[in-house]
Amino acid sequence: ESPQRQNMVEKGNPFIVGVLILGNIIILMCGIALYAETVWVTADQYKVYPILGVSGKDDVYAGAWIAIFCGFAFFCLGVFGIVALISSPLHTKYLVLMLIVYIFECASCITSYTHRDFVVSNHRMVTKQMLTFYAAPTAQGRELTRMWDRIMMEQQCCGATGPLDWVNHTSTFRSFYPEGLAPWPFLCCKRDANFVILSPEGCRVGHVDYINTKGCFEHIENAVNSYTWGISWFGFAILMFTCPVMLLAMYHYTTL
Q1: Is the pTM of this model over 0.90?
Q2: Which of 16-30, 116-130, 144-158, 213-227 has the lowest mean pLDDT?
């Protein structure tokens, strides 16, 4: 065994070394979990990205891409931290790299959470966007129309806050379909097990037995909240654990 390693073993507190090894193992496992979680977010399982993209407030996804890098980096640094405990020249490199990744992860958490607030607390923005782009013959219009059609069909909801969104406000949809013919999209109509409209006429007149009265904003809100939990709150929990591990590592290395 080299004199340098013998010296480190003599000076290093075995309890602190054990805690640091355990801490770095937890960090590397959390890093893999964060990586997987944020890959799920960027895959957009709820398919609500068009709403954030058109509004220009899609930094929830930007935070996810940063967190993908940070998750993989935390995994690598967890392994590197264990190696650094037995190799003196690596101490400073480990702490500097960990601090850099820590700052990036802070940016990811803050970015995602602040832009989540913009969407979740602003149903009027979502409603206005829907009324503007739904049925519009543009690339953005077609994308948002497909998204709203899918959500209204799958979630059995209508509009952002309810069917009256289409009646109480001017919309692109209304410029193509007169109120007497289609007061709201027929995807708002209740359907049987074969997805056949129960009663087109009952739906047209707004009979509660034949139209979905629930708005879709709740589903959109839950989707964005789920994404933010994965990026911001889980990321924040990792940061809260990593901070004392870094401080303990600094103490340990300064006493060698």
Answers
A1: no
A2: 116-130
Integer Cα distance of 16 and 194 in angstroms = 64
Cα–Cα distance, 139 to 144 (Å, whole number): 9
CB 219 within 8 A of CB 189: no
pLDDT of residue 8 exceeding 80, the answer is: no
Buried b (16+ CB within 10 A) or exposed e, 145-161: bebbeebbeeebbbbbb
Task: State how far the Cα of 147 lies from the Cα of 216, in Å rounded to an integer.
Answer: 11
Q: 43 Cβ partners below 8 Å, 6+ apart?
A: none
Nearest Cα to Cα of residue 65 among 87, 47, 88, 40? 40
CA 61 distance to own-chain centroid: 6
The residue written with tokens 């990744």 in the block is 101
Contact 50, 58 (CB under 8 A): no
pLDDT value of residue 7: 46
Q: Which two tokens stand for residue 81?
A: 């931290």
Residue 43 parent element (H or E): none
Could you tell me how many residues make up the chain?
256
Report the alpha-carbon distance of residue 60 to residue 235 in Å, rounded.
Answer: 13
* DSSP three-state, residue 188: helix
Query: At 181, phi and psi to the nearest 5?
Result: -85, -45
Q: What is the mean pLDDT of residues 145-169?
A: 92
| Separation of alpha carbons 12 and 19, rounded Å | 12
Q: Check pLDDT > 50 for residue 168.
A: yes
Residue 58 has pLDDT above 90, yes or no: no
